[in-house]
Amino acid sequence: MRRTASLILLACAVFCAALSPLTRWYAFPRLARIPPDQYQDVVLEARNATLLDYGTLRAKKVPQVTIVQTLKGDVAAAERIGRTAHRPVVVWNALSYVQGPDGMMVSEVPERYIFDAHSQAPVHATGEMVDGDPVERGGIEFKWPFLTQKRDYEYFDAQTRTTSPIHYQGTREFHGLKVYRFEQTVPWTKVPLPKSMPVKGITPQTVARTGTTRWYTTVRTFWVEPVTGAPVYGEEIHQEELRGGTLLGGRARVTAFAGDVKMRADYVEHTVALVKHNRTLVLALTSYVPWGALALGLLLLVLSLVLEARARRPGGPAPARAAEPRPVSA
């Protein structure tokens, strides 16, 4: 009986030992993926900002500028592109909508971002764009990879349509989570005007004919939860200027927008709660199940060896020797 139980425990130990690497190296890449139908939005605010009054073309202080960013997954496009790319992909239709304190639109910039569902590496396909302009992204945007490392990453800037390093700046605690801080500085760069302008009848083409150009710089900071790779907080010290041309009436430059853009507090709380939930699921595939299965396998192996040793031990006293026969006398 002990020999049978020992063999059963040994088989279970082998199963657990095999389950440990399979969960980490086989199941994790296939199960930890961004869902193709994901929808999310976030609201950012810049208080006491500077904003251009397009009626007078003068910069003025305003109490608040609001930026609404939405990401919506395109499932049909993801399936179509995934079949061609031979890997699961996600297609996000993103929109950055900026409005002034009066609720009127300042600018809106749509994006189409295509990336690998597990690694978050960009996937180049027809339709990849920023504000209607075809682009070929290098590096990440919006989200870091699962199991983010303490190193620099390449990050795509939608305004300049270029990729540059975003630097790891240290680790800190944020709302009960360990997060990595990343920072990227984009120097003053000439960038295209948004195709949706706040004044009816004014287009990027009409502005370009005046010789006026748009310039931009920013210092962006993200706090990233490393297990999920999800930013839980973001901030940008953002500046835009219009420079030169007849549109400015002889002035060399005028501020179009300047402000410290931060995530609104209620969206921070919602994001942190969502990340904490997803963090547990990722840890189950990368830590809890692999290490738990390995520990259980070792325990079962020890029990199996103990039972096997007991089964081999002699049980009970040795049988008595039979008495030697004595001769029978007549």
Question: How is this structure best summarized?
Answer:
This protein has 330 residues and is of the alpha+beta class. It is 29% helix and 39% strand.
Could you give the topology of this structure?
Layout: H1 2-31, E1 39-53, E2 58-73, H2 75-85, E3 89-99, E4 105-116, E5 129-130, E6 133-134, E7 153-157, E8 162-174, E9 177-191, H3 204-209, E10 213-225, E11 230-243, E12 253-263, H4 265-312
Antiparallel strand pairs: 1-2, 1-12, 2-3, 3-4, 4-5, 5-6, 7-8, 8-9, 9-10, 10-11, 11-12
Helix pairs in contact: 1-4
Q: Look at the structure and give the mean pLDDT.
A: 91
Order of helices and strands: HEEHEEEEEEEHEEEH
Q: What structural class do you assign from the helix and strand content?
A: alpha+beta
Name the shape in a single word.
Answer: elongated
Describe this protein's structure.
The protein has 4 helices and 12 strands, in the order αββαβββββββαβββα. The protein is an alpha+beta fold and 330 residues long. A 12-stranded antiparallel beta sheet has the order 6-5-4-3-2-1-12-11-10-9-8-7. It has helices spanning 2-31, 75-85, 204-209, 265-312; strands at 39-53, 58-73, 89-99, 105-116, 129-130, 133-134, 153-157, 162-174, 177-191, 213-225, 230-243, 253-263. It starts with a helix and ends in an 18-residue tail after the last helix. The mean pLDDT is 91. It is elongated, with a radius of gyration of 32 Å.
Question: What brief labels describe this structure?
Answer:
330 residues; alpha+beta; twelve-stranded antiparallel β-sheet; 4 helices; elongated
